[in-house]
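Translate sequence into C-alpha cells.
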Amino acid sequence: MQLIKKIFVIPRIIYFLIAIIILIFLFTILSTNAVEVSSIEFIGEATLPKGLIIQKTEVGGLSGITYDPKNNLYYAISDDRGQKAAARFYTLKINLSKGSLQKGGVVPLSVTTLLNENGQTFRPGETDTEGIALTNKTTVFISSEGDAAKLINPFIQEFSLSSGREITTLPIPKKFLPDKSSKTGIRNNLAFESLTITPDKKHLFTATENALIQDGVAAKPYIGSPCRILQYNLLNNQPEKEFLYQTEPVSPFLNLIGKFASGLPDLLALDNQGHFLSLERSFTGLGFAIFLFQVSLEGSDDIHKIDSLLAVDSKNIKPVQKKLLLDLRTLNILLDNIEGLTLGPKLPDGQQSLILISDNNFNSLQRTQILAFKMKIETPLVRLLRRLIPNLNR
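Result follows.
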C-alpha cells in the first residue's frame, strides 16, 4: 500500500513542477511588453494648404514628427536649412476623434524656433534638421544631417519644448563624421534622418539614411544600401550599440529624368525590446515608392566596434530582421515625399493610430501630406496562443 501511495505522490510533484515552469515561462513572455503589428488599415489623408504661413513662417519641409499624448499634440521638425526661416519645429493638432482622418483634420498651431546653447538662432546652412522625438521631460531630441560637403558634422541635440533652447548634445562616434578625404563618414544629405525613443525613455535610436562611405555604396536602381542603426543609452547619454540595416533594392519606374533616390528616412520604436517600424522611401522617376517594415534587433550583431564594413567580411554579419508590413503604392492614392512617422492616440475602437507625414521640399509641385492608419497590435499572450494554436482566428 505504501508503494502505491509513493507511485501516486511522484506524479503530483511532477505536475506541480510543470505548473511552476509554465507560470515562469508565461511571466517571462508577458513581462517583455514586446509587440507585433498584425494588421494595418488606411483611415484617411489630409494635406496642408500650399504656402501656409504660421507666425510669419511658411509651413513646409516637415521631415519628422512625434506625438505628445499628454496634450494630444504633434511636433513636426522642418528640414529648412535657414532659407525660409531659422531652424524650427511646428506644433500640430490632428483630429482622429471619429476614427479616421478627414480633409482639414490637420491644423498647425504654432512654430518654435531652435536656439543653440548660447540662446541664438542657428546660422543658415548650419543645420539640416530631420528627426524629432519626444522625451518625458518636456523636451525633444532633434537630429541634424549636417553638411558633409562643407564638413559640418551631424548632431543629435535635446531642446526645450517651451523655449526651443538647446539643453544637451549627444556625442557622435568618429566613424560617422565627415572628413576632408571624403573616404569615411556620412554621405551628404544621407545621414541622421530618423530619430525615435523607446517607450521607457531609456534608449534613443537613429540611423543613417544610406551607407557610410566606408561601409558600402549609396542606394542605386535595383541596389540597396547598408545603413547603420545607432543606439544611445539615455541614462548616460552615450552611444552603445550599432546594427546593420539593409535597405531594399527598388526598381525605377519610367525614369525619364534620370533621377533616383532611396533610403531609410525614419524609425519608430514599438517597445523596449528592439522592435520598430521602419519607413523606406524611394523616388523612382515617376512618383514615390513608400514601404513600411516591421523590424527586430533580435539576433542581429552589434557592429559598433567595426569602423568599416568594407574592411571585413560583412556576409558574416547578421543584419536586423525585416518584414514588409505595407507597400503604400497599393493604397491607390498619390504619394508624396513621406519622411516621418509616429504613433498617435488610441482610436475610438481601441486600436492604435499611426501618422505619416511628407516633406514638400518647399516645392510648388509637392504637398505636405499627412496619412493616418489603424494598426492592430498583438500582445505577447495573443502571440503565444497563436503559436500554440496556428489556426486561431485573428
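Note: The two ends are 52 Å apart (CA to CA).
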